[in-house]
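Progress against Task 2.4 (sequence-to-structure conversion) is shown through the following example record, which the project officer requested during the mid-term review.
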Amino acid sequence: MAAAGLSPMAQDAPPGNGHRNDVQSSRAQRRDAQASDARTHGAHSGDAHAASPDRAARDAGARSIWYLTRKFPPSRGGMQQLSARIAGELSALRPLTLVQWGRGQWGLPLFLPWALARLLVGLLRGRVRVLLLGDPVLAALALPARWAGVPVAVVVHGLDIAWPHRGYRAYLRRFFWNRFDVYFCISRYVRDRLGEAGVDPARCALVHPGVAAAAPSPQVPPAAEPRLLILGRLVRRKGALWFVERVMPRLRADPRGIVLDIVGEGPDRAAIERAIEREGLQARVRLWGEVDDAEKARRLDACDLALMPNRRVPGDPEGFGLVALEAAMSGRYVLAADLEGLRDALAAPALGRLLPEQADEGLWSAAVLELLADRAALRERGRAARAHAAAHCSWRGMAQRYAERLDAFG
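Structure tokens generated for the chain above:
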């Protein structure tokens, strides 16, 4: 289990204030952090039997899907959001036992033996129907389930199979590659990487993340100046630094005074601040830092166009791009780079436009100006994006696909 300390995601999860939840705190956490309407039933031990009350009573003592995840609210991030939704929505469809870690990844060495102990007890009592792991970092926990003849599945996100650390690569060879009955892939990019590594395509299930339905935003008149928004962690692959350095100087000449809001924190923040000062963009670029959900919604409402100017970074791919669906559900059109998992997030033209991966600052600035030329038409595109996301990108639909594939094991 020592290899688990080499988590490729460790830098992506800020320490949280999580603890082993009882029934009430688990429900509140899920509502506040993820707006989930699922009900959670558990014990002070930190695992939760998540199901509707009548189902929980009916299935007391019966076997269930066991879902183990090291990324869960109240810690924040895309994986945490996905984990909470898998648990909440899948539990509404099938009996589910949740064993989760809601703290920062500094505590992972504590979680692994605790989760293993919980799993061993469940296996010995015959309670585990299928084991579902939240990501490949937990792959070693599948060993006892396989020995017990229990089917095992894992959710694969992208970075968790691309991290180049030599020790982690050895860990994956020993515990992950061709060791699972089902690999749930969040994008075609992830599925293709698994196929290139020799995983049987029949074991790969493509299931995109969903997005929560949101109440329509009030019809607030747009600001006088056009507003752009970049939302996400400030790391190189997200492209915020590149956009500030290369594209915003070109947009500065627009007489309308285009403003870029950047929401998020990360290691690139200091470099972005230097670029803003160097290029004289203090009045045009605003750094909001990490904000709560209410402020994030306000920033989405205020913007005309959401941007995802991702750059390809070896060993750090974009597995999907959940922000694209969040922006669409908020009624905002998205302009993004055509690479990796973003191709799946914006596969439907109604959601946004993809620019070629090799697009330079000239093409990006031209595309932004073209879309901002008619702000009313752009808002209409945003409303169409919201309608498409609401109809085709639900979390419940995602959970249904998980349930159907896991049901194949009986």
